[in-house]
Design brief:
This protein has 144 residues and is mainly α. The chain has a single domain, classed as Winged helix-like DNA-binding domain superfamily/Winged helix DNA-binding domain (Arc Repressor Mutant, subunit A, Orthogonal Bundle), CATH 1.10.10.10. Helices cover 51% and strands 6% of the residues. It contains six helices and two strands. Strands 1-2 form a two-stranded antiparallel sheet. The chain is elongated. The mean pLDDT is 86.
Length: 144
Amino acid sequence: MRLGHTTKYALEALAFLIRCHARDEWGQIKDIAASCNIPRKYLEQVLLDLKSAGLVESKKGQHGGYRLSRRPDEISLAQVMAAVQGELLPLPDWLDDSAHNFPSDSGLRDAVEQARNAVTKIFAATSIEILICRPQSWRDNEMG
């Protein structure tokens, strides 16, 4: 799994939009770019990807901009990552290559698939709210 700059920018922009959501405001590209230190052209593409996935919506005009399409607790990290980077954890092609040096009864593919499924399950169950606060359930688990 690799989380590149595009994913980082998407998460930073969403954190900004979560705060806008709390104030019932629209986030303008210039403000998001400046606050998050994201190149404006790059940000525009990231927001278009998020909009195409139905995670944000836009409104034109002086008082327009971008906002979350639904509450932050209804948007998962997995949805965000799928919108900006495609499949979260693609299996490497060489796992299915018969020319590899692993025997056909090797458990490597199973281990990689289990790891991918576990990470995917965690991201699918985790909302973008974690971008601005740590859930109480995590804090409770740390104490005991």
